[in-house]
Design goal:
The structure holds 3 protein chains of 3 kinds. By secondary structure, chain A is mainly α. Chain A has 16 helices and 2 strands. Chain A has a two-stranded antiparallel sheet. Helix content of chain B is 57%, strand content 0%. The mean pLDDT of chain B is 93. The chains are: A mainly alpha, B mainly alpha, C alpha+beta.
Chain lengths: 396, 277, 171
């Protein structure tokens, strides 16, 4: 008790706890989907810790990388295999949690004023996480690692004028080779994680300032916070802990019993520069975007533009959707568009893994158009809703 | 209730996606793996019977210039280096060959190795001049010297490591890389992690008949028996994934631990939220 | 903690230090404990390192008056076949004629050099000197060069295992 007082005089921890925990109010009308933000932080911590232990034995060298992962870490280091399984499955599940977190944000309109910064920093975090996953995937130097890096870096070749030189610059070699591995390694273990931490801090700060959104999208003025909200600690966290343990149970089930989806068998074959595996595909979380790239099968350039657009278009949601109604719960038209988009995203993800031939190619094209259709429909839906509001006058 | 509904929607979406990208896509990409055929009945029927004693003499006259049979103290006429220079592959010791290779296949193989292995460049010359009786005698002899029970590692040594290395078990390929390149056109893959890179069923069928799964491959059909193939693949699985048992055991404990956590956190949540609504 | 009282005002559920919170704490501690144990285990030397823990060496290959240096657990081991003109010390001599010592100065861990003309080891760092028995005769070293644990199998010495000769020598 004395020590707490001593600390309080110097760091004002009581006040800090009050502001951050016991008197930080979260709206009452939110469901467990709002817990996914904390799950992302949890996954990030798990990834950083497991990654740190992998780093202690990993060797970033084209001749040594494969064996350092598959022999040293997987067979020689005591419990090394657990750290690798946790890291590989963790990266995969991180994207599942991210997608759910983002879908919740879209459905309940969490990107609308005044939360634009929350949305944009969050989206930057998604892009950074994608870059981290992509650079990390090369490190085991297996067949899938190698050919994923080879094909994705080749995409830059299509950029007019500078393309071909840029590809060689990115790789540090004419093909993906040792210099590519070492620079991806540096990005994966230092640069990108640092950026992730910085942007996470900004993201959380922004959430504290504007407050969490809620199911009905209703703004909660300061005076009503106590009445309409629940304190972050212990009430919100009590639920959060429960969601966390359920989630971790699922996660560890995957880690120990069902990890193949995150550790492709083909990646247990060392990288071979002279032989592409019969089927190559990205990890599942990139499949939808990859399918957009392949979807415009008749024009490579169009595909590439569509691919880049698909990765970034969601960042502009606050300006595409200007309807005054915040939450999708009260927007029937938006709901239709949203669910079509979700189904389309799953559809594209599945197609992304199938060979792009015959019927699949055409389905890919349709799916890609629907993908963009969702974003382009938002300004129209906004307009219709605005008119309805003006006519009806019954505000939310 | 409302939250359970949301959870149900999530579960359905994740499951549909999962089934699409894992079982379904794999099925489209790889098709179903055809079952192995251990009868080798595409080759002419041949029930080898004979006399081991006569077989021994025939072996010495026809086989031992290249092959040793250490179980019976027979050394090969040429050493490994010379054999490698002339055949680009080291000939195997035949002590246990009759246990791991199906005898009907073995008989056909001696007569015409290229047809039996489905590899037109297979190194052993055809012994078509031997009569059926002579081949029967040789096989009877090979059967008499062979150990009846072989471990996966022994089968690996007799059947695979002349061309394949198994780096993580510190087993190099017996034939040098430069000769393997001449013989097979490329260096055959290392087998250390094959058990993880390929499915169990794939390996069984592939060893049974490589051309079915990889048309044009220079890997010969070896004519292994069902038991030998299964023991071998079980061994490959084990060396590729040595912690399988530990993983299951730890996994179950972790899940039990997590389940306790779920119960505790749920109880606490109930308690805190009792008066909130 | 006092702020728990504050919590009481905020939420009705959380009044006394409750049992569930302790149970959850204990539960989490067990998980963290096992995780730390796994982390601890990952730092242990790998099998390939442990394989270097014992080294076999045939003493017969060292000619009289000659010094051989071999590596054991990453450290240099001096093996000197002694002659009559060198310092004598039966209690530190192995198999009647060999000095086998860890070639790391007992002062600050440098590796001494053999000076064949003076028949001593001279440490380049701070000038410590050891005679042919490995006993410190000059300078800062506090004690003689250490003798590695060994076992004799005929003329072959196994470094890293404690044989009866070694036990007698250190007792």
């Amino acid at each position: 008790m004395r020590f707490i007082d001593w600390l309080d005089e110097r760091l004002a921890i009581r006040q800090l706890i009050r502001i951050m925990m016991t008197e930080y109010y979260v709206p009452k009308n939110i469901n467990f989907l709002w817990s996914f933000g904390v799950l992302i932080v949890l996954m990030l911590v798990i990834l950083i810790i497991s990654g740190l232990f992998l780093l202690m034995y990993y060797k970033p060298d084209a001749n040594l990388a494969f064996d350092s992962v598959n022999k040293t870490i997987m067979m020689d280091v005591a419990f090394g295999w657990i750290f690798r399984h946790v890291h590989a499955v963790g990266a995969s599940i991180m994207f599942l949690v991210l997608f759910i977190h983002m879908a919740r944000g879209i459905y309940y309109g969490s990107y609308k004023p005044p939360r634009e910064i929350v949305w944009i920093t969050g989206y930057i975090l998604f892009i950074l996480m994608s870059a981290t996953a992509f650079t990390g995937y090369l490190l085991p130097w297996g067949q899938m690692s190698y050919w994923a890096a080879q094909t994705i870096t080749t995409l830059f070749e299509k950029i007019p004028v500078i393309g071909p030189d840029l590809v060689i610059w990115i790789r540090g070699h004419f093909i993906v080779e040792d210099p590519t591995l070492t620079r991806f390694f540096a990005l994966h273990v230092v640069f990108l994680p640092l950026l992730l931490i910085v942007f996470t801090a900004i993201h959380l700060y922004a959430v504290r300032i504007v407050g969490s959104n809620n199911e009905d999208g209703e703004p909660i003025p300061k005076e009503e916070k106590k009445k309409k909200g629940i304190p972050f600690w212990p009430v919100f966290m009590a639920k959060e802990f429960f969601v966390m343990t359920v989630f971790l149970t699922f996660f560890f089930f995957l880690v120990f019993f069902h990890y193949e989806f995150a550790m492709d068998p083909i990646n247990f074959i060392p990288a071979d520069k002279l032989q592409t595996p019969p089927h190559i595909y990205p990890e599942w979380y990139f499949l939808a975007f990859y399918e957009v790239l392949r979807g415009f099968f008749f024009s490579q350039n169009l595909g590439l533009i569509a691919f880049v657009l698909s990765m970034f278009i969601a960042m502009f949601l606050p300006w595409l959707d200007r309807s005054p109604i915040v939450s999708g719960k009260h927007r029937p038209l938006f709901q239709i568009a949203f669910w079509i988009f979700v189904i389309d995203f799953v559809f594209l993800t599945v197609l992304g893994k199938l060979p792009p031939t015959g019927l699949y190619a055409w389905l890919g094209l349709i799916g890609s158009i629907v993908f963009f259709g969702f974003f382009l429909s938002l300004p129209i839906i906004s307009k219709i809703e605005r008119k309805q509001l003006e006519r009806g006058g019954d505000k939310q | 209730m409302k939250e359970l509904k949301i959870l149900a929607v999530l579960v359905v979406i994740v499951l549909v996606g999962y089934i699409g990208i894992e079982p379904y896509a794999k099925h489209v990409m790889h098709g179903t793996i055809p079952p192995p055929d251990f009868s080798y009945l595409d080759l002419p029927k041949f029930e080898p019977v004979g006399d081991p004693k006569k077989g021994r003499e025939l072996f010495k006259a026809n086989c031992s210039s290249c092959h040793s049979l250490k179980a019976d103290g027979i050394e090969a006429g040429m050493d490994k280096k010379t054999a490698e220079l002339s055949f680009h592959v080291v000939p195997p010791d035949l002590s246990n060959v009759a246990t791991i290779i199906e005898s009907h296949f073995l008989a056909n193989f001696i007569r015409d190795p290229q047809t039996a292995t489905k590899n037109p460049k297979f190194a052993m010359p055809p012994m078509g001049y031997l009569t059926n009786d002579q081949i029967g005698n040789i096989i009877a002899y090979l059967k008499s010297t062979a150990k009846k029970e072989l471990t996966g590692k022994e089968i690996l040594h007799d059947a695979c490591t002349r061309c394949h290395s198994v780096k993580y078990q510190k087993i190099p390929a017996e034939t040098s890389q430069e000769h393997l390149k001449i013989y097979l056109g490329k260096i055959p893959p290392d087998l250390s992690l094959m058990g993880r890179a390929k499915e169990h069923e794939y390996l069984i069928t592939f060893i049974n008949n490589p051309q079915v799964l990889l048309p044009g491959t220079t890997m010969p059909r070896l004519g292994l028996t069902k038991e030998a193939t299964e023991t071998l693949v079980a061994y490959l699985d084990k060396i590729a994934d040595p912690y399988k048992e530990q993983r299951k055991k730890i996994g179950i404990w972790v899940l039990i631990y997590m389940f306790i956590g779920v119960v505790l956190t749920y109880a606490w949540k109930r308690k805190i939220w009792k008066n909130i609504h | 903690m006092e702020n728990e009282e504050r919590m009481e005002e905020n939420s009705q559920g959380m009044s006394r230090r409750d049992f569930l919170l302790y149970a959850m704490g204990a539960w989490a501690t067990v998980g963290v404990g096992y995780t730390l144990y796994a982390m601890y285990k990952t730092w242990e030397p790998l099998p390939e390192v442990l394989a270097q823990a014992t080294v076999k060496f045939d003493l017969a290959q060292v000619k009289p008056g000659e010094l051989k240096v071999i590596s054991w657990r990453g450290k240099p081991i001096f093996i000197l076949h002694k002659t009559q003109d060198m310092a004598q010390c039966p209690e530190r001599t192995i198999a009647g004629k060999y000095t086998v010592v860890i070639g790391v100065c007992t002062h600050l861990g440098c590796i001494p050099n053999w000076e064949a003309d003076r028949k001593i080891w001279h440490c380049p760092c701070h000038g410590g000197e050891y005679d042919a028995c490995g006993i410190n005769i000059f300078g800062p070293p506090p004690r003689p060069l250490d003798i590695p644990p060994f076992k004799l199998e005929g003329t072959v010495i196994v470094l890293g295992e404690e044989g009866p000769e070694y036990k007698k020598m250190i007792s």
